[in-house]
Model the fold of this input.
Amino acid sequence: MNGIISDDGLHEFRKQIKVLLYNYKPFCEKLDLHLDVDYLEKVEEAIGRWHDQLMISSLFGKNVPIVSHSEDDSLEKLRSNIIDLTHNFYQRVNHN
Done:
């Protein structure tokens, strides 16, 4: 995943990862497809934390860290973490 992605696009990406993981686990041996499930789960969780904070901010006001009282829960830091985590996404997820 490279480049800028919209908030809606990022949320959609998370949903696609969840569907992939759900369908991959029972069929991975039959498909002879080897994905880094741990990495995909980390990406999905990072996007989830960011999305939760985004929803909280939209409901209660910007920069209100209700999910956690850590500075690391600012939307900018959470999004930056996703960008770092998804650098070279296709190479990192493919375990062949």
